[in-house]
Amino acid sequence: MFLSVGLMILTIAIGVISVNGATYKKLGDEAVLSPGSMPNLITSITWKHGPDIAVEWYGKETFAYREFKGRCKLDFNTGALTISNLTVKDSGIYTAEINNRVMNPTKITVISAVPKPTVSKSCNPEMTICTLTCEAQAITGVEPVIYSWVISAKQRVQSSSNQLSIAKLWVTLP
């Protein structure tokens, strides 16, 4: 048999995935938002979540507001904002203002963890074509789902489909 499920490993990355400009983070993880290039000396930092101020710093004191209290850290050298213990409410557009200069916005989307999948295999009688199917318990809040199939640790195929078909290649030498 040319194909074994042992050689096929399904990996589901639950880290940062960049899709169409959005950064996806797992519920409960942390996000580090970087404002981009900074001036040599930072004297003030304000991060907004949508139109509302989330965190601000003016020289000596840092103020976090609403749901951001106790979950945010500012890097005073780079202007980066770290948000820990992410919730779905943290999804949205964040904009930094460094020394009263508005920086490029960053969008994050917080999603639930993907449940552990099962992979099943079906082959034709000749064992020349096999289809692998990945299935998991359906839950809301995990979109978009991207399937990453790894073959022999060398080839990776990413797809929005939960099926992967593989055909046996016949090689004849003269």
TrEMBL record:
Keywords from the named record: Glycoprotein, Membrane, Signal
Chief subcellular location: membrane
Organism superkingdom: Eukaryota
Domain Immunoglobulin residues, every copy: 20-111
Gene3D superfamilies referenced in this protein's UniProt entry, alphabetically: Immunoglobulins
Record GO cellular component, one term: membrane
InterPro entries: CD2/SLAM_rcpt, Ig-like_dom_sf, Ig-like_fold, Ig_sub
Keyword Glycoprotein: yes
Cellular compartment(s): Membrane
Cleavable signal peptide: 1-21
Protein name: Titin-like
Organism: Pundamilia nyererei
Phylogenetic classification of the source organism: Eukaryota, Metazoa, Chordata, Craniata, Vertebrata
